[in-house]
């Protein structure tokens, strides 16, 4: 019983992460599965986009999420990669993997979360996907 306060302090709040993913999704992109690994540091996303462009905008938007902390910027989502893409009659199915900084699942964010306006299109030199 004495360990309950410690467990509560260590509890992670994945709703911030999930809200962030939803906020950067283009309107023509749908998620069919989302899994957080057992260590709580990476995310596997299966989804369908209406086009390659929409899928790329999703990736670029994820890369653009940042947290402003005391004058510096942190990018809590990293190592964003598309593992597989399959064209369909309706668009493309994809599997994406994302590493996230534990700061985004803390009970109180240490700064201000900045979610980019839609759509985001980064150039390849900025880390975007070459079309």
Keywords:
single chain; 131 residues; alpha+beta; Gyrase A, domain 2
Instruction: Please compute the radius of gyration using only Cα atoms.
Output: 16 Å
Helix count from the secondary structure assignment? 3
Strand content: 35-45%
Which structural class do the helices and strands define? alpha+beta
The CATH class is Alpha Beta
The total number of structural domains is 1
Q: What fold name stands as the CATH topology?
A: Gyrase A, domain 2
Strand arrangement, major sheet: 1-2-6-5
**Stretches with pLDDT under 50, minimum 5 residues:** none
Number of E-type strands: 7
Topology:
Blueprint: H1 4-10, H2 14-23, E1 29-36, E2 42-49, H3 52-64, E3 66-69, E4 72-74, E5 77-87, E6 92-100, E7 112-114
Antiparallel strand pairs: 1-2, 2-6, 3-4, 3-7, 5-6
Concise description?
With 131 residues, the protein is α+β, with helices and mostly antiparallel strands. Helix content is 23%, strand content 35%. It has a 4-stranded antiparallel beta sheet with strand order 1-2-6-5, with helices on one face. A 3-stranded antiparallel beta sheet has the order 4-3-7, with no helix packed on it.
Describe what you observe in this structure:
Helices cover 23% and strands 35% of the residues. It has 131 residues and is an alpha+beta fold. The protein has a single domain, classed as 2-Layer Sandwich (Gyrase A, domain 2). The mean pLDDT is 82. The radius of gyration is 16 Å and the shape is globular. The N and C termini lie far apart (56 Å).
């Amino acid at each position: 019983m004495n360990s309950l306060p410690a467990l509560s302090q260590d509890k992670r709040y994945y709703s911030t992460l999930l809200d962030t993913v939803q906020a950067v999704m283009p309107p023509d992109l749908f998620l069919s599965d989302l899994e957080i690994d057992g260590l709580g540091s990476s995310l596997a996303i299966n989804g369908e986009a209406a086009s390659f462009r929409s899928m790329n905008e999703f990736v670029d938007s994820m890369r653009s999420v940042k947290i402003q902390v005391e004058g510096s910027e942190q990018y809590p989502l990293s190592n964003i990669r598309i593992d597989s893409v399959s064209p369909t009659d309706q668009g493309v199915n994809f599997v994406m993997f994302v590493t996230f900084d534990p700061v985004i699942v803390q009970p109180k964010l240490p700064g201000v979360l900045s979610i980019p306006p839609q759509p985001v299109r980064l150039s390849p030199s900025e880390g975007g996907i070459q079309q």
